[in-house]
């Protein structure tokens, strides 16, 4: 989903399992805690190592609009997608600047939650990219309106052209996901993200599919007032339901 990750090795998985097993032992109901400080230090040592290990499972950076370089934007300049992408990037910049200045005006930064005291753009664009590349619209309970949600695990599945195999059960309020092809144990599971243009894939997921039958490009056409048939052309367009 447009994310770049550090490599995850078998050593990472086995070490994590070992540390979790040790936590289960130390936190078990039969564990006799005689020295509270020593017990806390043991737990803290393990959780600290877990935090260091598990950072590699998170995206280090993204290939979304928020991370575009000057060179990457130059490649898009001249295409219709450039206008859309620039507007998205401007919105990200404006949102960050607004929130940063708002926090500054509040004063007494020590009263703010720890995560708001150091509000840097690097963290903000990482968070924005995480949400942009993973959010999904789901129906609200008892209504037709849809809201955006982050769905753990399901939102980590990568795209492959096929058919949409995800459904929503309003009774149980569960997402129902079906495999669109046969898989063997150990295979990566894919899903079709739906009918998106290549521009939408680039903006919200950070990649462009090699094959995309749903891609389309907006073209702006104008009528010249010096055209002797301009009135007739407008009438034809109006009958076709096309605004001029």
List its traits.
single chain; 244 residues; mainly alpha; set domain protein methyltransferase, domain 1; 2 domains; two-stranded antiparallel ribbon; two-stranded antiparallel sheet; 8 helices; 8 strands; extended
| Helix-strand topology string | EHHEHHHHEEEEEEHH
Structural class: mainly alpha
Architecture of the largest domain in CATH?
Answer: Alpha-Beta Complex
Instruction: Pick out the low-confidence regions.
Output: 5-9
The CATH H-level homologous superfamily of the largest domain: set domain protein methyltransferase, domain 1
DSSP summary: helix tally: 8
The CATH class label of the largest domain is Alpha Beta
Proportion of helical residues: 40-55%
Q: How many structurally independent domains?
A: 2
Rounded radius of gyration (Å): 25 Å
Within the CATH hierarchy, at the fold level, what is the topology of the largest domain? Answer: set domain protein methyltransferase, domain 1
What is the average per-residue confidence, as pLDDT, rounded to a whole number?
83
How does the major sheet shape up? Answer: 2 strands, antiparallel
Proportion of residues in β-strands: 5-15%
Q: How far apart are the first and last residues' alpha carbons, in Å?
A: 38 Å
Largest sheet strand order: 1-2
**Which overall shape is indicated by the principal axes computed on the Cα atoms?**
extended
The strand count comes to 8
EC number: 2.1.1.85
Keywords: Methyltransferase, S-adenosyl-L-methionine, Transferase
Pfam family, one: SET
Family: Belongs to the class V-like SAM-binding methyltransferase superfamily. SETD3 actin-histidine methyltransferase family.
């Amino acid at each position: 989903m447009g994310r770049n990750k550090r490599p995850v090795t078998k050593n990472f998985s086995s070490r994590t399992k070992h540390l979790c097993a040790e936590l289960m032992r130390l936190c078990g109901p039969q564990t006799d805690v005689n020295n509270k400080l020593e017990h806390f230090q043991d737990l803290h040592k393990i959780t600290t190592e877990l935090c260091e290990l598990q950072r590699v499972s998170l995206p280090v950076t993204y290939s979304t609009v928020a991370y575009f370089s000057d060179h990457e934007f130059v490649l898009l300049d001249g295409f219709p997608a450039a206008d859309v992408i620039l507007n998205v990037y401007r919105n990200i910049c404006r949102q960050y600047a607004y929130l940063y200045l708002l926090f500054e005006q509040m004063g007494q930064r020590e009263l703010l939650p720890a995560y708001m005291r150091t509000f840097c753009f690097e963290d903000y664009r990482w968070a924005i990219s995480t949400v942009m590349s993973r959010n999904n619209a789901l129906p609200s309970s008892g209504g037709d309106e849809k809201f955006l949600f982050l769905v753990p695990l399901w939102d980590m599945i990568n795209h492959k052209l096929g058919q949409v195999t995800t459904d929503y059960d309003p009774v149980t309020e569960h997402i129902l996901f079906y495999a669109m092809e046969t898989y063997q144990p150990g295979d990566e599971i894919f899903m079709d993200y739906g009918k998106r243009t290549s521009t939408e894939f680039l903006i919200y997921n950070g990649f462009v599919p090699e094959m995309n039958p749903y891609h389309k490009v907006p073209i702006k056409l104008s009528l010249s007032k010096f055209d002797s048939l301009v009135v007739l052309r407008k009438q034809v367009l109006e009958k076709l339901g096309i605004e001029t």
